[in-house]
Write the C-alpha coordinates for this entry.
Amino acid sequence: NAGVTQTPKFQVLKTGQSMTLQCAQDMNHEYMSWYRQDPGMGLRLIHYSVGAGITDQGEVPNGYNVSRSTTEDFPLRLLSAAPSQTSVYFCASSYDSFSYNEQFFGPGTRLTVL
Amino acid sequence: EDKVVQSPLSLVVHEGDTVTLNCSYEVTNFRSLLWYKQEKKAPTFLFMLTSSGIEKKSGRLSSILDKKELFSILNITATQTGDSAIYLCAVEDSNYQLIWGAGTKLIIKP
Protein backbone atom coordinates (compact mmCIF):
# COMPACT_ATOMS: atom_id res chain seq x y z
CA ASN A 1 0.00 0.00 0.00
CA ALA A 2 1.24 3.48 -0.84
CA GLY A 3 -0.92 4.94 1.96
CA VAL A 4 -1.80 8.61 1.47
CA THR A 5 0.04 10.38 -1.33
CA GLN A 6 0.10 14.08 -2.08
CA THR A 7 1.40 16.02 -5.04
CA PRO A 8 3.18 18.31 -5.51
CA LYS A 9 5.56 18.40 -2.54
CA PHE A 10 6.38 22.06 -3.12
CA GLN A 11 4.64 24.80 -5.07
CA VAL A 12 5.16 28.52 -5.55
CA LEU A 13 2.25 30.57 -6.89
CA LYS A 14 1.67 34.19 -7.69
CA THR A 15 -1.27 36.01 -6.14
CA GLY A 16 -4.41 35.32 -8.14
CA GLN A 17 -3.26 32.05 -9.68
CA SER A 18 -5.28 28.90 -9.20
CA MET A 19 -4.08 25.37 -8.67
CA THR A 20 -5.10 21.95 -7.42
CA LEU A 21 -3.37 19.97 -4.70
CA GLN A 22 -3.79 16.27 -5.29
CA CYS A 23 -4.46 13.67 -2.62
CA ALA A 24 -5.00 9.96 -3.09
CA GLN A 25 -5.27 6.96 -0.78
CA ASP A 26 -5.32 3.26 -1.56
CA MET A 27 -6.70 1.97 1.74
CA ASN A 28 -10.39 2.19 0.78
CA HIS A 29 -10.93 4.81 3.49
CA GLU A 30 -14.26 6.59 3.50
CA TYR A 31 -13.15 9.64 5.49
CA MET A 32 -10.69 12.11 3.99
CA SER A 33 -9.77 15.58 5.06
CA TRP A 34 -7.54 18.54 4.27
CA TYR A 35 -5.65 20.50 6.90
CA ARG A 36 -3.37 23.47 6.77
CA GLN A 37 -0.56 23.89 9.27
CA ASP A 38 0.84 27.31 10.09
CA PRO A 39 3.60 28.06 12.61
CA GLY A 40 2.31 28.30 16.17
CA MET A 41 -1.26 27.42 15.19
CA GLY A 42 -1.44 23.67 14.94
CA LEU A 43 -3.59 22.03 12.29
CA ARG A 44 -6.77 23.59 11.00
CA LEU A 45 -9.42 21.69 9.08
CA ILE A 46 -10.25 23.10 5.65
CA HIS A 47 -12.70 20.58 4.15
CA TYR A 48 -13.58 16.99 4.74
CA SER A 49 -15.48 14.16 3.10
CA VAL A 50 -17.24 11.18 4.65
CA GLY A 51 -17.51 9.33 1.36
CA ALA A 52 -17.63 9.67 -2.41
CA GLY A 53 -19.94 12.47 -3.45
CA ILE A 54 -20.13 14.01 0.04
CA THR A 55 -18.04 16.96 1.18
CA ASP A 56 -18.38 19.52 3.94
CA GLN A 57 -16.63 22.59 5.24
CA GLY A 58 -14.23 22.63 8.10
CA GLU A 59 -12.91 25.47 10.21
CA VAL A 60 -11.23 27.51 7.44
CA PRO A 61 -12.90 26.74 4.08
CA ASN A 62 -12.81 30.18 2.44
CA GLY A 63 -10.76 30.29 -0.75
CA TYR A 64 -10.76 26.51 -1.19
CA ASN A 65 -12.95 24.02 -3.02
CA VAL A 66 -13.00 20.24 -2.88
CA SER A 67 -14.72 17.39 -4.64
CA ARG A 68 -14.88 13.64 -4.02
CA SER A 69 -15.81 11.83 -7.19
CA THR A 70 -14.10 8.61 -6.13
CA THR A 71 -13.25 6.99 -2.81
CA GLU A 72 -9.54 7.25 -3.60
CA ASP A 73 -9.12 10.90 -4.59
CA PHE A 74 -9.78 14.13 -2.75
CA PRO A 75 -8.28 17.15 -4.56
CA LEU A 76 -8.12 20.60 -2.99
CA ARG A 77 -8.50 23.57 -5.31
CA LEU A 78 -7.26 27.06 -4.60
CA LEU A 79 -9.46 29.36 -6.61
CA SER A 80 -7.42 32.57 -6.53
CA ALA A 81 -4.29 32.21 -4.42
CA ALA A 82 -3.53 34.80 -1.75
CA PRO A 83 -0.40 35.25 0.39
CA SER A 84 -2.48 34.25 3.43
CA GLN A 85 -2.73 30.78 1.92
CA THR A 86 1.01 30.25 2.26
CA SER A 87 1.13 27.18 4.45
CA VAL A 88 1.83 23.47 4.61
CA TYR A 89 -1.16 21.41 3.52
CA PHE A 90 -1.82 17.90 4.76
CA CYS A 91 -4.33 15.42 3.46
CA ALA A 92 -5.47 12.68 5.83
CA SER A 93 -7.68 9.61 5.63
CA SER A 94 -9.26 7.10 7.97
CA TYR A 95 -11.74 4.28 7.68
CA ASP A 96 -14.48 6.55 8.95
CA SER A 97 -14.88 9.73 10.97
CA PHE A 98 -14.85 7.66 14.18
CA SER A 99 -11.39 6.20 13.56
CA TYR A 100 -8.98 9.00 14.37
CA ASN A 101 -6.73 6.49 16.07
CA GLU A 102 -6.20 5.02 12.61
CA GLN A 103 -5.91 8.28 10.71
CA PHE A 104 -3.06 8.46 8.20
CA PHE A 105 -1.53 11.67 6.93
CA GLY A 106 0.10 12.36 3.61
CA PRO A 107 3.62 13.84 3.46
CA GLY A 108 2.33 17.38 2.94
CA THR A 109 2.54 20.09 0.28
CA ARG A 110 4.47 23.24 1.10
CA LEU A 111 2.78 26.13 -0.71
CA THR A 112 4.16 29.64 -1.03
CA VAL A 113 2.05 32.41 -2.51
CA LEU A 114 3.96 35.51 -3.57
CA GLU B 1 -14.95 28.71 22.00
CA ASP B 2 -13.28 25.30 22.09
CA LYS B 3 -9.54 25.37 22.51
CA VAL B 4 -6.58 23.10 23.13
CA VAL B 5 -3.43 24.54 24.69
CA GLN B 6 -0.11 22.75 24.78
CA SER B 7 2.83 23.61 26.96
CA PRO B 8 5.64 24.23 26.79
CA LEU B 9 5.80 25.48 23.20
CA SER B 10 9.36 24.26 22.96
CA LEU B 11 11.71 22.26 25.11
CA VAL B 12 15.39 21.36 24.87
CA VAL B 13 16.75 18.49 26.97
CA HIS B 14 19.71 16.14 26.92
CA GLU B 15 19.62 12.55 25.84
CA GLY B 16 18.56 10.33 28.71
CA ASP B 17 16.38 12.95 30.38
CA THR B 18 12.69 12.40 31.08
CA VAL B 19 10.22 14.93 29.68
CA THR B 20 6.59 15.69 30.37
CA LEU B 21 4.47 17.48 27.80
CA ASN B 22 1.14 19.01 28.73
CA CYS B 23 -2.13 19.41 26.91
CA SER B 24 -5.07 21.22 28.46
CA TYR B 25 -8.43 21.66 26.81
CA GLU B 26 -11.74 23.42 26.95
CA VAL B 27 -13.99 21.48 24.61
CA THR B 28 -17.69 21.05 24.99
CA ASN B 29 -18.86 17.46 24.56
CA PHE B 30 -15.46 15.80 24.75
CA ARG B 31 -15.12 12.43 23.04
CA SER B 32 -11.39 11.65 23.03
CA LEU B 33 -7.90 13.13 23.17
CA LEU B 34 -5.19 12.12 20.76
CA TRP B 35 -1.41 12.54 20.70
CA TYR B 36 0.61 12.63 17.49
CA LYS B 37 4.33 12.84 16.75
CA GLN B 38 5.40 14.99 13.82
CA GLU B 39 8.93 14.66 12.60
CA LYS B 40 9.88 16.26 9.31
CA LYS B 41 6.66 15.53 7.52
CA ALA B 42 3.32 14.01 8.40
CA PRO B 43 1.98 13.54 11.93
CA THR B 44 1.87 9.95 13.09
CA PHE B 45 -0.57 8.65 15.68
CA LEU B 46 0.69 7.85 19.19
CA PHE B 47 -2.24 7.49 21.61
CA MET B 48 -5.97 7.91 21.89
CA LEU B 49 -7.34 8.53 25.38
CA THR B 50 -10.99 8.41 26.34
CA SER B 51 -11.06 7.53 30.04
CA SER B 52 -9.54 9.29 33.01
CA GLY B 53 -6.69 7.73 34.92
CA ILE B 54 -5.93 4.90 32.52
CA GLU B 55 -2.36 5.09 31.32
CA LYS B 56 -1.58 4.25 27.73
CA LYS B 57 1.97 3.05 27.20
CA SER B 58 4.17 2.33 24.20
CA GLY B 59 7.80 1.64 24.95
CA ARG B 60 9.29 4.74 26.56
CA LEU B 61 6.20 6.83 25.87
CA SER B 62 3.16 6.97 28.09
CA SER B 63 0.14 9.19 28.40
CA ILE B 64 -2.72 9.74 30.81
CA LEU B 65 -5.90 11.78 30.79
CA ASP B 66 -7.60 13.72 33.60
CA LYS B 67 -11.16 14.55 32.53
CA LYS B 68 -11.91 16.35 35.78
CA GLU B 69 -9.05 18.82 35.44
CA LEU B 70 -9.25 18.76 31.61
CA PHE B 71 -5.69 17.90 30.72
CA SER B 72 -3.43 15.16 29.50
CA ILE B 73 0.29 14.57 29.81
CA LEU B 74 2.69 12.76 27.54
CA ASN B 75 5.78 11.35 29.23
CA ILE B 76 8.92 10.26 27.46
CA THR B 77 11.56 8.51 29.57
CA ALA B 78 15.22 7.94 28.70
CA THR B 79 14.91 10.31 25.73
CA GLN B 80 16.87 9.67 22.54
CA THR B 81 17.75 12.01 19.68
CA GLY B 82 15.12 10.22 17.59
CA ASP B 83 12.47 11.59 19.94
CA SER B 84 13.14 15.08 18.59
CA ALA B 85 9.89 16.15 16.96
CA ILE B 86 6.81 18.28 17.34
CA TYR B 87 4.25 16.59 19.57
CA LEU B 88 0.68 17.47 18.74
CA CYS B 89 -2.38 17.08 20.92
CA ALA B 90 -5.91 17.07 19.49
CA VAL B 91 -9.32 16.74 21.12
CA GLU B 92 -12.26 15.15 19.37
CA ASP B 93 -15.66 16.74 19.99
CA SER B 94 -19.14 15.30 19.76
CA ASN B 95 -19.27 16.17 16.06
CA TYR B 96 -16.25 13.93 15.48
CA GLN B 97 -14.13 16.96 14.64
CA LEU B 98 -10.59 17.45 15.94
CA ILE B 99 -9.47 20.63 17.68
CA TRP B 100 -5.68 20.84 17.54
CA GLY B 101 -3.15 22.36 19.86
CA ALA B 102 -0.20 24.31 18.48
CA GLY B 103 2.25 21.58 19.41
CA THR B 104 5.35 21.26 21.58
CA LYS B 105 8.68 21.28 19.76
CA LEU B 106 11.00 18.88 21.55
CA ILE B 107 14.73 18.93 20.87
CA ILE B 108 16.94 16.22 22.33
CA LYS B 109 20.63 17.10 22.48
CA PRO B 110 23.15 14.26 22.36
